[in-house]
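Below is how a single chain appears once it has passed through the pipeline. First comes the sequence as given, then the structure the pipeline wrote out for it. We keep one example in the README because the format questions we get most often are answered faster by looking than by reading.
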Amino acid sequence: MFVKVNRDEIIEGLQKSAGIIPAKTGAAFLRSIWLEAEGASLKIMSTDSSLEFCGEYPAQVETAGRVGVQGRAFCDLARNLPKGELIIKADAEGKNVLIEQGRRKYKLPANEPEWFQPFAPFPEGDTVFWSGDFLHEVIEKIGFCISEEDSMEAIACLYLKPEQDAAGKRIEVCGLNGHQFAMFTFVNDDIFGLLPREGALIQRKYLSELKKWLGADEIELALGEKRMFLRTGDHRETFSLPLSFYQYPNYQGFLSKLKDPTASRLTVNRLELIDTLERILIFNTESNRCTYFLFSPGEVVLYSQGQDVGTAQEPLAATYQGDLQRIAFPTKNLMEILSHYASEEVTLTLTGAEAPCGVSGVKDQNYNVIIMPMMIQEETYYAEENA
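Resulting structure:
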């Protein structure tokens, strides 16, 4: 292989490719970036045995061929080189990859060509185009609610489910981790037709690299029997990941509780609530990670105490309707949930002191998060005599 390429043409692809290479693995081919020169282009490929990345970039090919190189070292070298033309070639024995830029010369050991594993081809035909930044936004809104434990099977996955009822067709994107649930809905007939009736599951551990790959431009999406494929509109880059096939829990039960007319409802300024929670957090400890909410018609009092750090109590203007007197939420979790909303005010629908609580907002009509309250220990909750 002998190829000449502009460093700036390939650096982004190298960084994306190196990003999915495992930091530590015994398999040399998983530590590799594969370079394949053919026609008038250079392909850059890598895999961690689950994710697959392939980018194709313009190049002057003197001799076609494929070679593998230690991926992170090659990427670091290219990133630290200045702009300009690179010459990349394999030596006569195929044991080294030589990189030259002007009088700069580098040598990296080459990998055995038989280590290369063919990548799954992009399924042509039944594809749809989708906004890359919209998909990125959806992952941001849902990803934090997905379990980080792979052993949790379905609830360690992002769930995309096509739904149709009297209101029409929609896509429900869900995340669940046992104490939080998030759902974002949107309408897209093409995506609705592409998804299988049972939906599609993507493991959380793949979402980080998917977000890094996504840009603001339109992407082409396809589903194979076992994989999801994404491709840039110019066909320059392809990213694919495996689908999971677990049974996702039925979430309609706890969503229906939020429609209970007897549920209590608290409406409060979102940014003021976040600001208050940030101060309350100072008084949280490992044994008491909660903020206690004490309700009255015109305000809510937020309260916390820590054995070693003292107590905090702040009133906050609010609108409240209901019979519930107090409730406790994990402070950090509630702050994170609120950060994903755009509405000036949010409404907390409280179905019980230890029952699901839904968060909604006027500007977030298609977005709902449910958080489970924490059990209140009688000796720690706020009472009037403490005022």
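The CA atoms of residues 139 and 207 lie 7 Å apart.

See the next section for the split statistics.
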